[in-house]
Fold this sequence. Notes:
The chain has 68 residues and is α+β, with helices and mostly antiparallel strands. The protein has helices spanning 28-32, 51-66; strands spanning 17-19, 24-26. It is elongated.
Amino acid sequence: MMDKYRCRFHPERKAVLYCEKYEYGYCDECVSDDLLCTDPELYCKFRTHCIIWENCRHLLKEKRAGSE
């Protein structure tokens, strides 16, 4: 199990944001690199207040509109 207080991609760095569903932590650098949801099409009970989801929500809407 990953430590949500440490960055998922940079374990030596402290997390400033984390995914509540998977408990993945992310550092400043990862957050500023246009962080996207790990599973944007799967159900997540935390989505209504998720900063990561808000960051990529429009991309999923565009993808769905293009497939219709």
